[in-house]
Write a structure and sequence with these properties.
Elements lengths: L1 E6 L8 E5 L5 E4 L10 H7 L10 E3 L5 H4 L2 H6 L6 E3 L1 H31 L11 H9 L1 E3 L6 E4 L2 E7 L7 E9 L2 E7 L22 E5 L13 H15 L3 E5 L5 H14 L7 E5 L1 H10 L8 H7 L11 E4 L2 H9 L4 E5 L9 H8 L6 E4 L8 H6 L4 E4 L2 E4 L3 E4 L9 H7 L10 E5 L3 H13 L5 E2 L5 E4 L1
Parallel strand pairs: 3-4, 4-5, 5-6, 10-11, 11-20, 12-15, 12-16, 13-14, 13-15, 16-19, 20-21
Antiparallel strand pairs: 1-2, 1-22, 2-3, 7-8, 8-9, 9-10, 17-18
Helix pairs in contact: 4-5, 4-8, 6-7, 10-11
Keywords: Hydrolase
GO molecular function: hydrolase activity; RNA endonuclease activity
Pfam families: Beta-Casp, Lactamase_B, RMMBL
């Protein structure tokens, strides 16, 4: 059996891992889009590193675009097999992929206006909404803790990872002759003290583990209160300076955490009197979908639901749907809070809001999660005095902040705890993926100290024999 790493290898995006069995059958674990990789991004998303028409099935860990975003392109290029995931992952993936296709078409139209005028070749999106519709038809769902067989002599079990509603570790048992090999692909591992979700579950003993390592050398500050931080930023920016507080946030997961925090401030009568706008039709759809999976919510949120039937809504909250209303919001001069995607500020409506407020120091851009160094969000966090938006240079005068205590990824302690259900002596190899290389090297050293002997950090398109 062979395992190849065609994404999220020494980087935190584009998750794609290909298992090739001795009988030639191929299983693709995730099919994510690369995001926030600067000028490399388009090239990375153009080439898979394998032939899509040779893949027999896809198994998804969760719905985020860096784990699902190239599924329609995979199908467009010849894949026609089943795509296995949890029910919540299917619902959220459908919403996210439609949004991704619409954003690509919108940006292609914008780019092509200039290209037509310059008599240059037109830009083509990776896929269309028709490709997304075909993708959804191929999706098959199985709940947590139910073994199923996507291929002959292959069994799979989804176990909860607490990263996102429906997120799962993919546990495989593969029989080849008299030999059985067990593999766990962690997907993204959540926090054991998540704002919204149940903690990660234990998973069966594995011979090989493909483990994410995003925060492999970091530790979340459990004493920091994101609710209080959020209140402070609103007061400073909106009340004192009379500016806009723009919060780039992924529509699935992070936006709901922020809305939940704002709802808490509202219930406690601590939310400043300022309008809050969620400028993302996707966020509205995603929030409604997430509310259907209350079993994934943690015990604290279960208690909140007994007194508040909608913990993601509060007085003063406004959803913006139309492009016209979004443009009006960019021009709005009164103090307000704007939550808009994407979380790294590399795509979507939030780029327009950032572009419209960058020149005025009374405004604030508040990042709410991990940003790669090359992403727009990463550049702002690094203190860049000038950034490029829609192909034009823009000076940065706004204050830039970060909600450091908000993250859906487990930190180094959480990742070690996630492995705690395993007998280290029975693990043949741990492959570290979904992390920056320097972070992975530090995390590998920690795992060695914990008794995990065989740690590998694969490179992009690297293939290994199991």
């Amino acid at each position: 059996m062979k395992l190849a790493f065609h994404g999220a290898a020494q980087t935190v995006t584009g998750s794609k891992h290909l298992l090739t069995l001795e009988n030639g059958k191929k299983i693709l674990l995730d099919c994510g889009m690369f995001q926030g990789m600067g000028k490399q991004t388009d090239d990375l998303n153009e080439r898979f590193g394998f032939r899509p028409d040779t893949i027999d099935c896809v198994i998804l860990s969760h719905a985020h675009i860096d784990h699902t975003g190239l599924l329609p392109k995979l199908i467009k290029e010849g894949f026609n097999g089943p795509i296995w995931c949890t029910p919540a992952t299917k619902d959220l993936t459908e919403i996210l992929l439609h949004d991704s296709a619409e954003i690509q078409q919108y940006e292609a139209d914008w780019i092509n206006k200039k290209r037509k005028a310059q008599d240059r070749p037109l830009y083509e999106p990776l896929y269309t909404t028709d490709d997304v519709a075909t993708t959804i038809q191929l999706m098959q769902t199985v709940g947590y803790n139910e073994w199923f067989s996507p291929l002959e002599d292959v069994e799979v079990l989804f176990t909860n990872t607490g990263h996102l509603v429906g997120s799962a570790a993919v546990n495989l048992k593969v029989k080849e002759g008299t030999k059985e090999t067990t593999i766990c692909f962690s997907g993204d591992v959540g926090r054991y003290r998540s704002v919204l979700l149940q903690p990660p579950a234990e998973f069966p003993q594995a011979d090989y583990i493909i483990l994410e390592s995003t925060y492999g050398n970091s530790y979340h500050d459990i004493t920091a209160g994101h609710v209080d931080d959020l209140q402070r930023w609103i007061k400073t920016t909106c009340t004192k300076k009379g500016g806009k507080l723009v919060i780039p946030a992924f529509s699935v997961g992070r936006t709901q955490e922020i809305l939940y925090a704002l709802n808490q401030l509202s219930l406690e009568k601590r939310l400043p009197e300022v309008k809050v706008y969620v400028d993302s039709p996707l966020s509205m759809k995603a929030t409604e979908a997430i509310k259907q999976y209350t079993d994934d919510f943690n015990d604290r949120l279960q208690q909140v639901l007994k007194i508040d039937d909608d913990p993601f809504h509060f007085e003063g909250l406004n959803y913006v749907e139309s492009v016209e209303d979004s443009r009006k919001l960019v021009d709005l001069e009164e103090p307000c809070v704007i939550i808009s995607a994407s979380g790294t500020a590399d795509a979507g409506r939030v780029r327009h809001h950032i572009g419209g407020c960058l020149a005025d120091e009374k405004n604030t851009v508040l990042m709410a999660g991990y940003c790669g160094a090359q992403s727009l969000g990463g550049q702002l966090l690094s203190g860049a005095k000038e950034v490029e938006i829609f192909g034009e240079a823009a000076a940065v005068s706004v204050e830039v902040g970060k909600l450091a205590s908000l993250s859906a990824h487990g930190d180094a302690d959480d990742l070690v705890r996630f492995l705690g259900c395993q007998d280290a002596e029975k693990i043949k190899t741990i492959f570290l993926v979904h992390g920056e290389h320097e972070v992975q090297k530090e995390f590998a050293e920690r795992l060695h100290r914990k008794g995990y002997e065989h740690i590998t950090i694969p490179g992009h398109h690297e293939e290994v024999e199991l």
